[in-house]
Each structure stands twice: as structure tokens, then as C-alpha cells.
Amino acid sequence: MTKKKKNIILIIPAFLLMGIAIGIETKTPIKQAVIGLIVGVVVYFFLKYRNKKINN
């Protein structure tokens, strides 16, 4: 079995890109990109905390 890679950091740019895509549709890409970035950071820290709690 290969060791599982920890690519949880990739969730931040994913939410950023989703925010930009929504912003293009609603004509406010900068606002939606910032919201996507904030949500991505929050989700990143939540998942990091949850994984640390599960592994201990």
C-alpha cells in the first residue's frame, strides 16, 4: 500500500476558483473570489483540526 498524501492545502485554491467562477456569473468576481478564499481557509483549518483529532 502506498502512503496517503496529504493534499488538504489544495482545498484553498479550489474554493478560490469556485468563487471566481460564481463571480463571473454574477458580475462581481473580486467579491466572490474573496469570499471563496475566506471559505477555503476556514474549511482548511476545520479539516486540519478534524484530521488531527481523528489521528490522535
- Rounded radius of gyration (Å): 14 Å
Low-confidence stretches: none
User: Average pLDDT, to the nearest integer?
Assistant: 89
Number of helices: 2
Distance from N terminus to C terminus (CA atoms, Å) equals 22 Å
Could you state the order of secondary-structure elements as H and E?
A: HH
Anisotropy-based shape: elongated
Structural class: mainly alpha
The helix fraction, in percent, is over 70%
Percent of residues in β-strands: under 5%
Description of the molecule:
By secondary structure, the protein is mainly alpha-helical. It has a domain at 28-56. Helix content is 77%, strand content 0%. It has 2 helices and no strands.
Helices and strands in order, then pairings?
Elements: H1 11-26, H2 29-55
Helix pairs in contact: 1-2
Quick structural overview:
The protein is mostly helical.
Entry keywords:
56 residues; mainly alpha; elongated
